[in-house]
Design goal:
33% helix, alpha+beta, three-stranded antiparallel beta sheet, 173 residues
Length: 173
């Protein structure tokens, strides 16, 4: 059982474990992940375990937060990732999320992202959180706007990279 970090009415968000490698292998090779996030080169269960260890688990060890496995509370089925990321190329912490297609259209991503944003403010004192998305990812843009993010500017994470839309959320307090 993954150590839980957050719960919502329908979801549990917790630390990724090496035993989640099969789910990660599937998720990071979904056409939507490849299109909007990019190819992480994860082709085997060993690659997936390395992705977990060197990505989300390492970020949690370094910053206290990272991407969390998001599962339905009713049956414990993993449906995606949602969490906070600190990228060298961005000044602020950003929120990230990705879900398997069969979970789309049910409000899970919005529910997980809203809980993660609350977690960022309550547990880490973050007064500003950003999000990046590809220019053609209308679903993510809509989700971000629905939880209070506003488009701020275009950014590149590396000189040779494509331009991304940067959205920002700030506390009003």
């Amino acid at each position: 059982m993954n150590p839980r970090v957050l719960e919502t009415a329908r979801l549990a968000l917790g630390h990724l474990e090496p035993s989640d490698a099969e789910f990660i292998l599937r998720l990071v090779n979904e056409p939507s992940w490849l299109q909007f996030i990019g190819d992480k080169g994860v082709r085997s269960l060993d690659d997936a375990r390395a992705y977990i260890a060197n990505g989300p688990a390492a970020m949690i060890a370094r910053h206290g937060f990272g991407l969390y496995l998001t599962s339905t509370k009713a049956d414990g089925v993993p449906i995606g990732l949602c969490g906070l990321i600190k990228r060298d190329a961005l000044d602020d912490v950003d929120i990230g999320f990705a879900f398997v297609p069969e979970s789309w259209g049910k409000g899970y991503a919005r529910e997980a992202a809203a809980a993660t944003l609350e977690h960022a403010q309550r547990d880490f004192g973050l007064r500003r959180v950003v999000a990046i998305t590809s220019q053609d990812n209308a679903r993510s843009k809509h989700l971000l706007e629905s939880i209070g993010f506003r488009f701020e500017r275009m950014v590149k994470l590396a000189p040779e990279a494509s331009e991304l839309c940067l959205f920002a959320w700030e506390t009003r307090a």
